[in-house]
Structures are given as structure tokens and as C-alpha cells.
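ok trying this again, last paste got cut off
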Amino acid sequence: MLADDPASNQVGVSIPEPRAVEDTAVLASSPNPSESTFTVITVPHPVHAVAEDVPSVVLVHVQDAPQLRSKRYLWPRPDQRVDGTVPYRVSDTTSCGLGVFATSDILQGELILRERPLIVYPQLLPYHSAGPPHERYPELEGALRQMSRSNQEAFHSLANCHPSEPYSAKAIIDTNALYLGPLPSSTYPYGAVCNNISRINHSCSPNAVYHFDDASFTFEVRALFPIPAGAQIFISYIDPALPRTERQELLLSYGFTCACSACSLTGPAHAQSETRRALIARADSDIGARDAALERWARSPRVPDDHVSRVDKMYMALFEAERLYYEPVWEGYAARLCKACCAVADRGGAVRWASLAAALSRAYTGSERGWDAVAAEPERTAWWGVRRGFKAQDASSA
């Protein structure tokens, strides 16, 4: 990229390429009547656990078990800050059961909560159609019996919005599921249930997001936006870019009608929100063309300096207006804006977009992914001043 950049001698910091992201996953488990064989293990394995470690019970396909047993997992760092405080509390919401609240101001990208799951299970749960309805998940029942007593109590104290399900453990899983994805060396998707994270309520404009850290076998929740002390923390259970009617239909499986800031809009404000989310949902439809247009613009000194960034700024404004930095696409827009600012030697703009990308990357992945270096020294990227260089070439050849 920009191999013939006149400022290529300044290269020392790379602008990260947007990472590939899976589509939003369905969280509910599904019965699996196949003949697959499963086993139950604890992670970390007792041989590798430290004295204060809290193991997770994992119901796993037998072929996935050896690597999980042998791996040494990092002991998860505590949730508490340097001053010893914990930035969240679990308490009553008065309207939708328990929820998680900020106990102090939380910065964008900051860690809120980290914990090992109570149980990890295949997204397609082993299921046996013979026998009474409450005995059709014997593998899951066996896994639950291997939990510590305190973890069993924590699991069974979680919400159950499927009272008609004969097997209460299956109902609790479907109410409180977190998507984990394939485990290392596995092609099978897994889900999990946590003690505190599973109590975080839903919003279609979430102020937080969770991700799974394989190195420590923990889930982390981080802030997508600054969260003031006392505010409730929300994640999204579904694809938040869907139209409201589709979001509400999907959320019926959780036993509630969403009344978040987006779903409670009426009249013109609702219509505007629906239009914005429809645009956001299609924001990745021509990413390749946008990237190519940026490259052409960088080498075209007679095109206005702000020409290529107008659409990207519009989309970033949409994300902000909807309080929805949509995970499949936001980084591509931030990266192009950072590159465009670098190309015209706009340090303030480059630092702004790189700093935002660093905070959002921390929220979504736990890592700033190299954006901090760009924010600190945008002048050392391959994009710095390239428009000035091509303009000088154009002027000298005129």
C-alpha cells in the first residue's frame, strides 16, 4: 500500500488493518440429537490450577478435550483497579430484575468486569429424545453435578425466562447464554454462562461489550462509551442494527419487550433511528471500493483534501448518533479517517481517530491492537504527508 509514497522514508508505525469479525451469533442453545461423544472436564486442569483458582466446568466434544486439559491458563487478573475498588455492583433494577451498575465513572475501553464462566457447553447441546422431558439432557446434568456447591447455587439463582421448559437448567442456559465460539483446535461453537456477566441486561444501544480471552479462559466486559457512576451497564443480546420489529421479535425469547433508548423512540425520532440503523447494517457493502477510493485520492492532488472522507465521517456520525459502534465495520471507517488525516498532515485529526480506535479495540478485544502507537506518533506512518508529496510532484511537473 502506498509503495511509491514520497514520504516512505518516515515509515515506523503501521496503521492497523481492520480485523475480520464473525456475524452476530444466536445465543440460545439447540438440542443436538446426534451420536457425538462428550466428556466433562474442568479448566484449568487441577494439575495446573493455582491455589486461589476457580475452575470452570466444560462439557466438551471428546476430540476437543486433550488440548483443554493440557493447556496452562493464566490466572485472571482481578477486576479491581489500582486503588482496590471494583467499578461495578449487582443490584435490583426495580423494573427488570437484577442488573449491573457502575460504582464510579468508567472510561471508554476500560475494563468493567472479568470472570471465569460457571459452565461452558456446546452450542448444540447433546439431547436424547427418549425418556421423560426433564431427563433428555443427561450430559448437561452430569456437568452441573461436577460444579462446586457454591457455583451450583450461583447457576440456579440466575434468571429463568422459560418456565415452560421441563428441564430448568436448559432454561437457565437459554436465558443467560454468552457466545464463546470455537475453542482452540475446535470447529464446534460453544456457549457459556457466568455468575455476574450473565446478569447484565440488554440494550439495543449498549454501553458495554463482552469478549472471551482464551489465554486466561475468562470473559471480559469493557465500556463502549464513557459510563457515569450509578448508570446501568448494558450489552446487546442480538444484532442491534436490525429493524426494531425484528429486534423485538428476537428478544421475545428472553421474556421481555425491550424499552431501551432506541426502542422507546416514537414518531420522527423513531423513523430517523430506523433509517440510521438500516444504513449501519449495510455499511460493509462496499468496503473494498472505499479503500480503493482512499488510495486513488491520496495520489490525486487536484481532488479536494476532504473529498474522500465525507462518507466515512457521515458513518462515524451515524454510529455516534445511534450509540452503536457496529462491530463488523466501525474500525474500517476509523482507519480510513486516520489515514486521510495523516495524508494531509492533520495531526489533531489523526490522533482523534486513532485514540477512538484504540479505545474501541480495547473494548472489543482487550487490546489496543497498535492504535496507541499511531495516536502517539502519526507522523511516523506511511500515510503522513503523502498528499503534500504528490502535490509537490504535480506542481513541479506542471
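PB: full thing came through this time. DSSP finds twelve helices and 14 strands in the chain.
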